[in-house]
Amino acid sequence: MVTEKSVPTRTVTGRALAVLDTFDVKHRRQSLASISRRADLPLTTVHRLVHELEKQNALVRGSDGDYEIGSKIWRLGLLASVHSDLREVALPYMEDVYQLHNDAVQIAVLDGLRCLIVERIAGSRTLEVMSKPGSRLALHATGVGKVLLAHGDAELQKAVLNSLDRFTDQTITDPGVLETQLKTIKVQGFAKTQEELAEGAVSIAVPLRGKGGNVIAALGIVAPSDGRDLGKLVPVMQVTGAALSKKLVEAGLGDAARLQAST
Amino acid sequence: MVTEKSVPTRTVTGRALAVLDTFDVKHRRQSLASISRRADLPLTTVHRLVHELEKQNALVRGSDGDYEIGSKIWRLGLLASVHSDLREVALPYMEDVYQLHNDAVQIAVLDGLRCLIVERIAGSRTLEVMSKPGSRLALHATGVGKVLLAHGDAELQKAVLNSLDRFTDQTITDPGVLETQLKTIKVQGFAKTQEELAEGAVSIAVPLRGKGGNVIAALGIVAPSDGRDLGKLVPVMQVTGAALSKKLVEAGLGDAARLQAST
DNA sequence: ATTGCCCTTCCACTATCCGGAAGGCTCCTT
DNA sequence: AAGGAGCCTTCCGGATAGTGGAAGGGCAAT
Fold first, then answer.
1. Chain B neighbors of A24, CB-CB under 8 A
2. Which bases of chain C are contacted by protein, using any atom under 7 A from a CB?
3. Taking residues A137-160, what's their average pLDDT?
């Protein structure tokens, strides 16, 4: 009768995770006040939570007072399937592809409305790092992202198609155009991007399939757009993708739920 | 009174972390009931917490119902200094040492009453994996552990000296003997173990120093005990350790608090 | 059919969390 | 030197959000 449930009910656990979630590549070290602002929580509340997290080593505090992700979280993170399993199985295959062309090779899984880069091989002569393990990139502007999106469910596609951010003038921002492309990708079995996320970078990506043929991840190669015909890479990627897929299923990693992020 | 490990956590955040803490290398996938038992929390409570954590992708649930660390924790973990910074700076040096002898090379930091393996280089011909990144080993039975312990504060030493577990018949379990050895280590600048953690393995370790000369980590090499004289490795390790220490300070990693776990 | 184990939902109670207010701190600026 | 602007910390009464026992359903062995 008082105030309706207008405010999204927040649980303590949710708040604690919100605090942790304020940390990202651009904000690896933050002051208390910064966390408070970014998490949109009262300073006092954050103060209490952060102390608790620090006591448990989920956060560490440097001598300058800034907070940072602590060793407990790191240690736990290494136990995730995305890290140890997928990585372990996939690395040799990625290495093979890399040896062939010396272009950056990466693997990504779905994470909400983004694609999450799980592992990446790149040399010193490859493109500047647009993505590192742990990065989350737009689905509609990356090769791996398009693959994941094309094989994603209707709900996901709808959500993504409704907000197509522009990164370069090649970025596809027309839902209709992208939708058509996704259909093609699903049929042909590979995706391609041409400077859609960053100038000078093109990519090819293929799906990685788990149990029952579900697409659980994507394997991609990113090269400088120097006029080479990336098309000839497609067969190699497809063969590698198929071989790796088989291996993933054998390794018991065919379970998408275990790798991905759901709604 | 020092060894209060199972602190009956009265806060929600603490409980949530206790749930996460039930996951380790031996328990990467657990049922709800297993988590409940290991965290020593009522099933209902765990049920609620786990659901919340799952909703936020801190945990994932496989199709068989078992839970596992999720992508959020993994992603956050990559932001930790122990991972990206220390690792990035140290790897080239570790590689150098590895090339020289082809024995396992590792770096560890202090984590409570254990040493936490941060990174490890090993080939197929090296010793069987006793330690992997993320492992936590006893301080008194490893080279890196002894180094960290020798430079640790009195409180830490007291706590560790009071509970010296035995792993092999070479393990030092006499507090007096170990204490003397720690003093020597501090003076000589390196530690040595001989089959104290596992049969057939010996090791040498040196300190890595941060700002103001504080020991923030340890660099070690583990070799099979095949009669070779490990003593001749000491100079190499010490030189490498010193060079790496300098680099760590330059990289702004001289802050022990940021890498280590406190009380 | 029975037993055992696991997961899930329900709900009344109160322990636990909330967050405004106030004060201390360190750097600036004037 | 005084004033201001941020940042961090402690305190505390109020009520929200978490608690966990009980009960029931599912599944797989015996």
1. 79
2. 5-10, 15-21
3. 94
Rounded CA-CA distance B91/B13 in Å is: 35
Three-class secondary structure of residue B242 per DSSP? helix
- DSSP-H helix ranges across chain A: 12-21, 32-39, 43-55, 71-77, 81-101, 143-150, 154-161, 175-188, 233-250, 256-259
Q: Are A161 and A178 in contact (CB under 8 A)?
A: yes
| CB B68 within 7 Å, strand C | no
Region for A59 from its dihedrals, namely left if φ exceeds 0, alpha if ψ lies in -120 to 50, beta otherwise: beta
Joined tokens for residue A253: 């990693």
| Nearest alpha carbon to residue B115 among B207, B211, B237 | B207
B6 touches chain A (CB under 8 A): no
Query: To the nearest whole number, what is the mean pLDDT of chain B?
Result: 87
Q: What is the pLDDT of residues B208-227, one digit of tens each?
A: 998 778 899 999 999 988 87
A vs B, Cβ pairs < 8 A, gives: 163
Q: Give the count of beta carbons closer than 10 Å to the beta carbon of residue A9.
A: 6
Structure tokens at B117: 């393996």
Q: Among A11, A71, A82, whose Cβ lies nearest the Cβ of B82? A: A71
Give A197-225 pLDDT, tens digit per residue. Answer: 999 899 999 999 987 788 999 999 999 88
User: Please, what's the b/e burial string for B236-253 (b: 16 or more CB within 10 A of its CB; e: otherwise)?
Assistant: bbbebbeebbeebbeeeb
